[in-house]
Amino acid sequence: MSDIRGTSLKTYWQVIDIIGKLAIPIVLGFMTWTLSRSQHDLAVKQAERQQQQIQATEELKVLEIFYKELLSEDPARKRLACAIVKMHGREDLLERLAIVAPELGLWTSIEISQNRFESSEVRGAAQRVRYNIAERLEISNPADGDSVDMFVEVHGTTPFFSMEHHYIIVTPYKTQSDTVESEASVTNGLIRGHIKLGSAAVGAGERFALRIIATNSTFTIGEAPIPLQESISSNSVTVTRRKEEKP
Length: 247
Description:
This protein has two domains: 1-135, no CATH class; 138-241, Immunoglobulin-like (Sandwich).
């Protein structure tokens, strides 16, 4: 009986010894795996931080080049700012371009809007910028529906300070033919010009549509405006010429 107990006890300790020997490599392996995983996570986080630093550096460089070209007096260099906007597909740069150089912002937003390779977010931003810029070229006086005399002083606002010409276009409702009536002056974005609606014998009591076209092309006063893609039109204002002039 005592021999059996002794044998059982010996076997028990042998099993314990075997388990102990097996456990040591397992524990060491787990510790090694844990350390390796920690090192891997640390390496991933470090790589992410480095990537963020690279992106931040690139961001600053893009902004530096963008503003350097945009604020240049050279028109060719200003167009490089447009190329940067399109190259990087940046909504924020497009909006800044539209503020500093509205005409360049308009052309760039038109190109982006028509480019199916741009992301939908960038195309949507371009569409918003396009409409916002165009709406800022407007006639403020006379107002739509006003009654006026034959000679009218026209006022308005424009964001297109660097465009060479702002022409006032008159369209009689009776003939529906556009005529370049006069070239307006622009001072700090404020438009002022004078037009004549008809003549002493023609035009009294009739309605006329007025609008302003901003363009770098030269139009001939008294003739129809040339339809050009680069010309930008304001809102249209309808006025009625009085049958009798105000004293």
